[in-house]
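Deliverable D4.2, example record:
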Amino acid sequence: MAGKTVLLVDDEAGLTAVLAKRLKARGLTVKTAGSGEEGLSVLGDDKDIALAVLDINMPGLDGLETLKAIKSMRPEVEALILTGYPSVESALEGMRLGAYEFLSKPCDMEELYARVMEALARADAR
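Output generated by the structure prediction step:
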């Protein structure tokens, strides 16, 4: 699992910074992006990214559109979706598009870390 990078994509810069800091403190390599478009650009430039953690509600490309684009660019990249506005429809759509897990914001850091590690293990097993 060494050398696997997590990409956090969220338009809430404060939240992204906190999550990145906490994941880095646990030994993970983390990149951040403030939009779906920026996330796709970062993904295109970094072949070590194994997991994208996506906010669902973002201006421009939302999390589901970003997920669809990620899966067409790099189908092996795992994805977790975070949302402050959970709905059954968006959860089902996210899973259909290939998301590994769907978590509500604010999410418990231990739960997020556990899901991140599970998704990285899945990516590593491929």
